[in-house]
Fold this sequence. Notes:
Helix content is 29%, strand content 20%. It is of the alpha+beta class. A hairpin with a 3-residue loop joins strand 2 (42-51) and strand 3. The chain is globular and about 45 Å long. The model has no long low-confidence stretch (mean pLDDT 90).
Amino acid sequence: MKILLIAISAVTAFFLGKEAVNVFKSPVLFQSLESKTVTGEAVYNKIKWFSDSDKDIWMMSQSHNGPQFPEEKWDRLAIIVDKKYKTAQFLQLKPGPLQWTEDLVSQQVPYRVSCFMCHANGPRAIRPTGSSLFAEAKILLWNFKIKSYGRLKEHPSHLKLDADLNMPFRHRTEIDNDTLQVKVCVYCHKESGFAARGTLTRQNAVTIQFLVESGIMPPFGIPISVGEKKEIQRFIRGF
């Protein structure tokens, strides 16, 4: 019933036109279903979407100290999706407002973690917990938007910049980029073809484990065998 109500809210908003678009571009604050602090506490995200004819920008502030922590101290990130060239560029920024300006591209600061560990295909599905019906309806539309991008490659700048970073966008060693080949996964997690969502590698292991163990993946009720689950666990362990 909850999913139906969210879907109805989302479709209704879609048909309201420009006013609804403006509403759906307003920021959403939510507790992450997946992310936890190193001590197991909740992580809070605030996301805002910007769009023009050739690119979308997803900006996020993140707090590891609860929702009441001063926002001027939250981590701030941006993902730039080039809709023409089908690339995604990830920026770690100084704390600040969720307001996009082009000069932010030249104001990057070092990554706190490797973005590719969780983002093998640009922006990923947003998974809140305990959010309001309206917030979930908005996030549902955002997730449709994210799915519509299809396969996104990492922006060419990442390969060049990673060589000089202590914490790279993506780890480049052979073992880090060993690819997941489990049959039920590669229906979608491949580089090209229908529903391609990008190859998964060993550096995505934490995300893979959470999504499989929580039943989020495989999606749409696609069955996964006991043997395939064991294959995934062997891949995550590395042997």
